[in-house]
Amino acid sequence: MSIQQWHQFLQHSAIQYPLSEINPSLTEKTVICDLSHLGLLQIQGSDASTFLQGQLTNDIKQLHGSNAHYTAYCNAKGRMLAIFLAFAQDSQFFMQLPKALVEPITKRLRMFILRSKVEIHDASASMIKIGLNGPHAPSLLSTLFSEIPTQENTFTTHDNITLLRLSGTQPRFEILTDIEHASEIWQILSAQATPVTADVWEWLDIHSGIPDIKTSTQEAFVPQMLNLDLLDGINFKKGCYTGQEIVARTHYLGKVKRRMHLAHLDTSAVPQPGEIITDSTHEPAGKIARCAPAPGGGYDILAELRLDSLENSPLLVNAVQLEIKTLPYALTSA
């Protein structure tokens, strides 16, 4: 089965509901989602670990084959070009990111390989990614897997199928497998879970407080602005990497003055990542990092904001007031 056949299979399966057609109470049920909107880089070679160690904010050597972590890829000024969900398997490293960034990030990384023994491949089409979220997710998965990860950002592997536990307000998992296994897994799980579209998964990521870099927000944020340090996405002891000086300076010498917040916009106009947020004095207060339709109407967003701007309320996006919500983790200064 090819990736095209996988998409054809999904089209002939049960309807995948977008958030606009979901009753708010349905978000409390168990949902299944095709994650083809996410890309996957496969990085291998005898120098792969050393190469990635000099490029990313987190310690690649702490990936030991049963865990994953978030990490950022920055420019020389410490501004993020991408955020990866990274894990290692069979002496290979995998970096998950939005599919739209796969080609430009691959091209940029290859510029720095030079004579290193490193190969970078786009594995997006060879590995199917399926998301499962909700209170019944563990029990549904127990019909397929003998071992279910209980800790966030850990995974188990069974017969070329990787089961990764993600962070979330409810049990949330990602299944990565080859195309041959994917259709059977989907049929079994979708019989008891509601199939949904990618905007539902985006909304779940937002409510989990997981940042992302889109094409429109590349080079807009340093990692701490999007709480990556609070998500263990930065290792301050690992040594040098591109942009490390700026990231470390923010941590050791200064106070983080900008943080990412969960918020809601009661509007029918679609907010865009990178869009400016203003305070009551009409001064720029921050930018939208992620957004998705909210089940009850309007849009939920992750907003990068100056901390002092929270005192100059209301905060506005195109004259629509921002309603600040509570993230699932505490905001603390570096």
Radius of gyration: 20 Å
Number of strand segments: 17
The outline comes out as globular
Number of domains: 2
What features would you describe in this structure?
This protein has 334 residues and is an alpha+beta fold. It folds into two domains: 3-14 and 23-207, Probable tRNA modification gtpase trme, domain 1 (Gyrase A, domain 2); 255-334, Elongation Factor Tu (Ef-tu), domain 3 (Beta Barrel). The protein is 18% helix and 30% strand. It is built from seven helices and 17 strands. The chain has helices at residues 3-11, 48-53, 102-111, 137-141, 179-190, 198-207, 244-252; strands spanning 31-34, 38-44, 68-74, 80-89, 92-98, 119-122, 128-133, 155-158, 161-166, 172-177, 194-196, 258-265, 276-278, 284-293, 299-306, 316-317, 320-324. The strands form three sheets. A six-stranded mixed sheet has the order 8-9-10-7-1-11. Strands 13-14-15-12-17-16 form a six-stranded antiparallel sheet. The longest helix is centred in the middle third of the chain and has 12 residues, at 179-190. It is globular.
